[in-house]
């Protein structure tokens, strides 16, 4: 008798907790999704619906006009292609260079490698703002220690090209690269040493061991780093707006969208500059910019969670 | 001449040799894109820079730039203090909140994959330019106003909560802090995506045997959390704290101030000084908080 009552009490407690948990999770999910839902609702509204007091979520006059405007102002398709190329190039280069450095810091210790790893930590800790201006000036007159002026007679201006991104990602110093090196190092340290030794005894050199044994084992870490690097590069406005001022990349297009929009509206017919309308098109622009990411996320979401669990950041 | 062969013969020597090769790309980048700019920026911060047709004239002026940033510039002090206070206020909230959510998302329930998918969405969305533009979105602001009067967002309203807590005699600062957190829930949720991921990964490495044993001994879920989960993930609290601090760089208003001073007013000296002051402030926060947290952290070995 007592036993059953206890059981039912336990049961009851479990149910209560389930409900509380459900409410919490549903509520917070709503908080997260709210801006996106709102943007969708705004994007499909017609201009007249903006002032209609009865329209909150579902528009009275459904329209795709905002999308058309935003696409034409942002030069969307070209921008999309550019951003995709930029992000994927830097992602691949960064992952490769960070994997090399991470493996070296984890397993191939040499004199001073501890000190250099402290350097990696330093790159994580120093705010990019601190070094931005010298980097900017350096890239404006890029000399590579005076080698380039010797060859061509003048320094090169690397701004407004993709070179800053390529150079920094080849050398594992791009956006948040220190973090990626750290992830790789942690992961490689988790792989048993015995495997390497076995490979060595079987006659594989260090390079071969890395390529044939360690890299295939490091897939979770690679996936994690690639995902983060791609997404952060896509969204990054800090470096892109400094290095690229006139190229069409998502971040620069988004930040100059209000400006371009007002130019276009002023040039057009008597569509006076309505701040609400501008904001509406801007919201649509944001939606368009994150749309590819959301689509990609739908497919890789599973790996996102799985890989970080196995990538040994926590170990 | 085997003596002069390029690759050393011993395994250790070979590893060291390849280690240098592997690190080399990073080292080059480190020197050219980090160390030299860092030192240059330090030098700039102590000098006055005049750009002319022949190039730049750099003259050493000592601490003048720092003095100017701290005493003359109207914005810097306020922005720096605000940005640091904001960070200090947010760190505990984000860390505790993400630990709580990670525990929640680790439990088995219907639709868990879906819920996880939503909670990691901020990792993708809440960064860089999107966040900046979002804060200026007019439609959103107006909609929120409308919704407030309509009662939709009232559910988030912390007014009632505040009254109840003050009446029941909770300290007023704590009440203000908590209700502030409720009001900024979106900001906090959107900044804790990566932290949730890290905690979740950490919780899953905890061996299930420990929980089984605890259950046999009659521990409740609450006790199991405080006696098993919490100590075992406590090193990650440190990790997440540091990550939260690093993550706050990109949205700090200081960045904007430094960029406008540097590029629009072309006062490189002053802007470098500002950037260094910001760096020093961050380091102080980092060192102090790491010191306090790491004393409490439990390490297994």
From TrEMBL, chain A:
Localization per record: Cell membrane
Lineage, opening ranks: Bacteria, Bacillati, Bacillota, Bacilli, Bacillales
Keywords, comma-separated and alphabetical: Cell membrane, Membrane, Transmembrane, Transmembrane helix, Transport
Organism: Gracilibacillus oryzae
Protein family according to the UniProt entry: Belongs to the binding-protein-dependent transport system permease family.
CDD domains membership: TM_PBP2
PROSITE patterns according to UniProt: ABC_TM1
Topology relative to the membrane: Multi-pass membrane protein
InterPro entries: MetI-like, MetI-like_sf
Gene Ontology annotations of biological process type: transmembrane transport
Ranges that cross the membrane: 15-37, 115-137, 162-183, 214-234, 276-300
Protein name stated in the entry: Carbohydrate ABC transporter permease
GO-annotated cellular components: plasma membrane
Gene3D superfamilies for this protein: MetI-like (1.10.3720.10)
Residue ranges occupied by any ABC transmembrane type-1 domain in the UniProt entry: 80-299
Keyword Lipid metabolism listed: no
Automatic annotation (TrEMBL), chain B:
The keyword Transmembrane is annotated on this UniProt entry: yes
SUPFAM superfamilies: MetI-like (SSF161098)
Name of one Pfam family that matches: BPD_transp_1
Transmembrane segments: 16-39, 84-105, 117-133, 185-203, 224-246, 273-293
GO biological process: transmembrane transport
Top-level taxon of origin: Bacteria
Primary location class: membrane
Chain ranges of the ABC transmembrane type-1 domain: 80-297
Keywords from the UniProt entry: Cell membrane, Membrane, Transmembrane, Transmembrane helix, Transport
Keyword Transmembrane helix attributed: yes
A GO cellular-component term linked to this record: plasma membrane
InterPro entries on file: MetI-like (IPR000515), MetI-like_sf (IPR035906), UgpAE/MalFG_permease (IPR050809)
Localization: Cell membrane
Membrane topology note: Multi-pass membrane protein
CDD domains: TM_PBP2
Family membership noted in the UniProt record: Belongs to the binding-protein-dependent transport system permease family.
Protein name: Sugar ABC transporter permease
